[in-house]
Amino acid sequence: MSEVTSSKIQSTRVGMDAAAIKQSILEHLVHTQSRFPDVASESDWYNALAHAVRDRMLERMMVTAKTYKANKSRTVCYLSAEFLPGPHLANNILALGIWQEVQEAVAQLGLDFESLLEEEVEPGLGNGGLGRLAACYMDSMATLKIPAIGYGIRYEFGIFRQEIEDGWQVEKTDKWLSYGNPWEIPRPRLRFNVHFGGHTEQFKDIDGILRVKWIPEWRVIGVAHDTPVMGYGVKNTNLLRLWSSEAAESFNFQAFNTGDYYGAVNEKVTSENLTKVLYPNDEPEAGKRLRLEQQYFFVSCSLQDMVRIYLQSGDPLDQFHHKYTAQLNDTHPAIAIPELMRLLVDRNQMDWDTAWHVTRNTFAYTNHTLLPEALEKWPLDLFKKVLPRHLEIIYEINSRFLDEARMKIHGLNGHLEKLSIIEEGARPQVRMAHLAVVGSYKVNGVAELHSELLRQNVLPDFHALWPDKITNVTNGVTPRRFMLLSNQPLAHLLRERIGCGWVTDLDSLHKLEALADDPDFQQQWQKVKRRNKERLARHALAATGQKIDPDSLFDVQVKRVHEYKRQHLNLLHIITLYNRLKDNPGLDIPPRTFVFGGKAAPGYFMAKLIIKAINSVAEVINRDPDMDGRLRVVFFPNFNVKTAHCIYPGADVSEQISLAGKEASGTGNMKFALNGALTVGTLDGANIEIREEVGKENFFLFGMTEAEVSALQQQGYHPQDYCQNDPELKSALDFLASGYFSHGDATLFRPLVDNLLNGDPYKVLVDYRSYVDCQARISEAYRDRQEWTRMSILNVARMGKFSSDRSIQEYTNNIWKIASVDVF
Ligand code: GPU
């Protein structure tokens, strides 16, 4: 077959002008969707447009792969159980630089661009911050021309869709694939076996060397599905490769051998269930067997794929770590460490020491949490049932590691227990964080404070052993999606005044500082915010039926609902304002709208009760004629990437109020500030660094420091003292408990109030007074619109650090040691 040149392909299908794009859309409408224009639905047009855009990406993806291969480029594999990319269409159009052209093409076809974009169902393959961070990093790696593959799971059902019924969260299955997914390319021939269960046997190979054979009990097949990830304004188009499980023909060896056909078919169903659904728990671990199976499944497919690609180069496997580095996005993929050992030692007959050298130089581990209950541990008995060979390998890793540690610290065994990968006790467990630390060449936290607490509190013995191992890379977010795409009014204003450089060089937002006092610019800034607030108000009306007033201050808290994030602290402030206004109708405070959004894990009773409480308080306040135009509360349902696009730009105030020492970093805090909201926040996670950057006079700080939190914990905390000493706090709690917000039902919110009065694990009551007073300063500051606008401009001007480009640059320089590769 004669080689088709890329220029030939280009001339027919990938022209970048409006006419060519229009032609492509029409062709796809007919040849992909099989619809004539006069009968095509919005969804048909969306698919046709998506395919037209995709055509323009695929060649880049192929050229990128070819270039990386020819260069033998060092590649980073980002292993993550979650990716939350958000809707692809608009982002890809921007990355290709054909926004105008597509708009023109679409207009010529008599279609509405906005409603086509609305058609897209986003892939909700993540819970929150961790999955979204992975997506921001994929964007930045492509934009910075870093050869990268994202490896993960193609869940058939992503994070549930949240509906609110009678104030309660109700979970609906997210059937995101129902209408097809134009962004993925199935690779049915790219498939790997993944084995589970069974037992191991020792044998001597032909050279007389003792080896181990794993006789598994069942197997599943993983099939690749690729989604191209384009860099902004560059040709580099990396790959997000997600695995979906398929049953093998004879999957259960035992059942087939004994002729138990129906039993075997039942196993088939089980195999295909493996990638059926994302576990909707954000941080606390569920300890479910299926979850361990999911983790091993995607990790095994990914490593087998990496080895396959590597072997194409003809290089020996003992150099594997020169070609690849694999980043473990939390411990969810940490099983990769024993799996690579198994592939090298059992499958490729490498000696243990060489294999360990390769493995230990391949992986780096990012920790994302300090919450003890979120550190993954697997009971040994469960682990042994699912992965008997891996458990043996872990024992071997552990015993050699403890020998090394014993010698290095010259200490006695007691000390070593704290380091061990195995936690002894009534039900012994595998500590995945310890496995990840031992098997990685670098470990990082996601904000300065978090990394320091990792060194001091979570992993102090490892830090003593390897003082250079734990480092920090503060999180970042992509300005492409979270400014350029989602805040077009701001992007236009910036383009007029400081150009477009900020899109790939966020530090150049600094140029705005010179404009912060310019009355004309301030006015334009206010207009932008006003338009964004109107848009948010329209969406809120459509989603909730509630009218909100863009003239009021929009005070927004959107994030997963968790006690440590303290949505209930926000709620206590709202009740306090309500009580003040009721007691003193003449009180002069700027009208406020409180917007909440976020999902609760389906099994997390207290978080769901907090959602119900927010909605119940909202119902009473929004109904109270005394509050009209002064106070409003809305809960925006189903917070996801799509709704985030209109929420962040519409905020005046960003709520970042976690108890100090609990939020590893936060990334919503960055998205808000980049869109001109002012932060009310504690000294937690990346808030600290945001405040350092924007200046303390442009940040509303309240609450205890982490040191104060630990000191209070040490000395003994008695929440009721705080309640007794603060009449406003007492009154807010009494109202919540009394049934005032629950149609007289005094039992409904009792568990919430009791939890605060008897224990209050996240010290809501301690920080209440400082929070409420800080909110009063916000109200005062908001009256001076000029000063507020100035602060808002300065916030944006000084947020350059929080681009995910900066984070990725740090990973490449300090951890991965990887160079960019030009693609032409
Ligand atoms: N995070 Br662990 C999640 O979203 N899910 C998790 O399972 C774990 C952590 C978050 C942190 O809570 C947040 O502080 C951080 O900004 C984010 O990961 C990304 O690092």
Automatic annotation (TrEMBL):
Q: Which domain of life is it from?
A: Bacteria
Instruction: List the InterPro entries hit by this protein, alphabetically.
Output: Glycg_phsphrylas, Glyco_trans_35, Pyridoxal_P_attach_site
> Which reaction is the catalytic activity of this chain?
[(1->4)-alpha-D-glucosyl](n) + phosphate = [(1->4)-alpha-D-glucosyl](n-1) + alpha-D-glucose 1-phosphate
Q: What CDD domains does the database record attribute to this sequence?
A: GT35_Glycogen_Phosphorylase (cd04300)
UniProt KW Transferase keyword: yes
The record, for SUPFAM superfamilies, names:
UDP-Glycosyltransferase/glycogen phosphorylase
Annotated signal sequence is: none
Q: Which family does it belong to?
A: Belongs to the glycogen phosphorylase family.
The protein here is known as Alpha-1,4 glucan phosphorylase
Classification from the root reads: Bacteria, Pseudomonadati, Pseudomonadota, Gammaproteobacteria, Thiotrichales
